[in-house]
Design brief:
The protein is of the alpha/beta class. The chain is built from six helices and six strands, in the order βαβαβαβαβαβα. The structure holds magnesium ion.
Length: 161
Amino acid sequence: MFLKPTYLIAGDVTDINIDELSRSGIKGLILDLDSTLVAPKSAQITQEARDWLDRARQRFQIAIASNNKNEAYLDLVRKDLSITIVGRAKKPSRRAFHRLMEEFGLQASEVAVIGDRPLTDIWGGQRAGMQTILVDTLKTMVEPEWKRSIRKLERIFIRTD
Ligand SMILES: [Mg+2]
């Protein structure tokens, strides 16, 4: 099995060029939450990520699909960012992606899935027929070494040619 993200970003979510993405015909974004937009379990967003999200919202319909099951935690983020979040998304299941696509009123090809995990975010987005954008984990995040190793291993599945 190989995964081929539509875009491989050399950087985290804030390095995604909003103008370029908008010009490519994308109209909706489905973002992963933990490690992509906020440090896991922190529910805290950096000013840089907040600014990026604010700019992105002027161009795209945006929602979050997260495998996180902690509704109290997700509610903190929902309130802070005033954003739709589908929790327990069970990515790589396509269910949450399809549900949000219908809410957006868009075709799969007009939606991009953004996340840091190949086997959940990218595989799921690919299965849903959407464009996919693989980002690094937030640069402001400090992770234990074993977690970093798993992330590197997962990237073996990525095809860049
Ligand atoms: Mg993540």
